[in-house]
Amino acid sequence: MSESEHGSQRVIVIALVVNLAIAIVKFIAAYLSRSSAMLAEACHSLADTTNQIFLLIGLRRSKRGEDDKHNFGYGSESYFWSFMVALSIFGVGGAFLMFEGIEKIKHAGEPENAMRDPFWAYVVLGASFALELISLRAAWREFKAMAGDKGIRKTIEESRDPMVITVLFEDLAALFGLGVALLGVWLASYTGNVVYDGAASIVVGMALVGVSWLLARQSRSLLLGRSVTQHESDKIVEIVKGFPYVVHLVHYRTMHLGPGEAILALKIHFSNELDVRTLELKINEIEAALRHALPVLRRIYVEPGFDERQKVPA
């Protein structure tokens, strides 16, 4: 397992343990306080726990090697399970929370929906906030290692590993949800109007729907076959054109097969002076230079030829 993969696994495991502990205490507090916002937060944490399990499954299954059915391996499994997490956040998290909040508002006047002593809700929300900060700290540290000198937005756009970003966005959404839930519980308790509690659940649900859309959009792009970054693409062109026997780089195509593995196909017009044996050696030389500069290029295929749209060279 590479250092990057080990870091991703560590972040996911920390988030799993934290979210499971938070979910248990939130359900207890929701029962004691009769708070819709607290119940919504408990379901949110339970969904996050399931999501970490999904990510670990994806990380494990993506390590399988190639076989007769999947000649390029299973690297894209991590993209599929990240997409499943996005769907889980939308359905189990966002949609359920909004439904629960609407139901609370519709039946605000019924005795069974009246707020009880919110003391335990405050205690659990405060403790959950502290625990979420632990998970966020681990995810942020790994994210910063991924980013290097790049900015946050560029790192997210160029990332081909959805694991750490998924946990990071989950933690940020969780902290936002805890803040909103705390405000909703306090307003409902202070005014005696449980509509505030229901409204807090709706707001948290809307935030989760937004996060799920962003993560689904990222995973969809990776599943469809994302190319390497612009910097890596420029490096490919620079290396290939730097060889004196390369007359013209006709075209090239790249696609990520997984977070740490990409495929590169090139069509190159070589000098006519090369015989077949020499051409084979030069192709291997180009492949070696590309792999040395860009280890992510695990599979490279070079096709000698010329641009069919132009006149056949003499």
Note down, in words, how this protein is organized:
It is elongated, with a radius of gyration of 26 Å. It has helices at 3-33, 36-61, 77-106, 119-147, 152-158, 162-191, 195-223, 230-241, 276-293; strands spanning 246-258, 261-270, 297-304. Strands 1-2-3 form a three-stranded mixed sheet. The protein contains nine helices and three strands; from the N terminus they run ααααααααββαβ. The chain has two domains: 3-223, Cation efflux protein transmembrane domain (Alpha-lytic protease prodomain-like, Up-down Bundle); 230-304, Alpha-Beta Plaits (2-Layer Sandwich).
Short recap of the structure:
With 314 residues, the protein is mainly alpha-helical. The chain has 9 helices and 3 strands, in the order H-H-H-H-H-H-H-H-E-E-H-E. The chain has helices spanning 3-33, 36-61, 77-106, 119-147, 152-158, 162-191, 195-223, 230-241, 276-293; strands spanning 246-258, 261-270, 297-304.
Give the tags:
single chain; 314 residues; mainly alpha; Alpha-lytic protease prodomain-like; Alpha-Beta Plaits; 2 domains; three-stranded mixed β-sheet; 9 helices; 3 strands; 68% helix; elongated
Spatial ordering of strands, largest sheet = 1-2-3
- CATH domain class of the largest domain: Mainly Alpha
**End-to-end Cα distance:** 50 Å
Q: SSE string, helix = H, strand = E?
A: HHHHHHHHEEHE
* Radius of gyration of CA atoms, rounded to a whole number: 26 Å
Report the structural category: mainly alpha
- Can you tell me the CATH superfamily of the largest domain? Cation efflux protein transmembrane domain
**Unreliable stretches, pLDDT < 50, 5 or more residues?**
none
